[in-house]
Specification:
Blueprint (H helix, E strand, L loop, with lengths): L12 E3 L3 H13 L2 H26 L9 E4 L3 H9 L1 H10 L2 E4 L4 H51 L4 H21 L1 H13 L1
Parallel strand pairs: 1-2, 2-3
Helix pairs in contact: 1-2, 5-6, 5-7
């Protein structure tokens, strides 16, 4: 993304592979050993917290990065186990500003963030759009005051519909001219939105 000074702002994403710790937990689960499940579950949480702290300390550096990072867990089973532990997820978000994603959620989160950043950019550019629209409104009122009366006279004097159509074409031509006058500004706004 871009910040207010139009500098690049990076989104830190790091993949972590706590496979060994998860396999210990899974083996304990399969064996039905509750004591081993509890200890390996705590070890899994400790490992995930350590990884989150590592990501935060290495990569989160506002204003050069976002104030949060993404931890990508590439195995759906590990991701599901971490997400199942809601207190762990809350700790990761509050203490380390880490969002946990897995194979099925990474794309959705990145798309959501992209839309959020685009919305933010649009909101920042709203002032410019309102300025342009204000200028267009002023031009319309200037032109409309001069040229609207002939349309009333044409309709009141009983002229045929062809004459009315010609009058409206002149009015439409003026609208096109007005758009042409502001086309550079409109083009820049559209280009900015497409490129950011």
């Amino acid at each position: 993304g871009k910040d207010d000074a139009n500098s690049t702002v990076y989104l830190p994403i790091d993949a972590k592979f706590p496979k060994d710790v998860y396999e210990q937990y899974y083996d304990a689960f399969e064996a039905g050993d509750t004591a081993l499940m509890e200890s390996s579950g705590k070890q899994l949480e400790t490992t995930i917290k350590k990884m989150a702290k590592d990501i935060h300390d290495k990569y989160v550096d506002p204003p050069f990065t976002t104030d949060f990072a993404i931890m990508f867990l590439p195995f759906e089973s590990i991701y599901a186990e971490v997400i199942r532990r809601t207190s762990l997820v809350e700790t990761l978000q509050k203490e380390y500003k880490i969002v946990v994603t897995g194979p099925t959620t990474l794309g959705a989160i990145l798309n959501s963030l992209q839309m959020g950043f685009r919305t933010l950019a649009i909101q920042k550019r709203t002032g410019e759009v309102w300025t342009v629209l204000g200028a267009v409104k002023t031009e319309f009122s200037k032109f409309g005051g001069k040229n609207y009366r002939p349309f009333k006279m044409v309709s009141l004097s009983g002229w045929d519909s062809v004459t009315m159509l010609i009058g409206w074409c002149h009015y439409a031509d003026w609208i096109v001219s007005l758009c042409w006058l502001y086309s550079d500004t409109i083009y820049k706004l559209i280009s900015y939105q497409l490129n950011n």
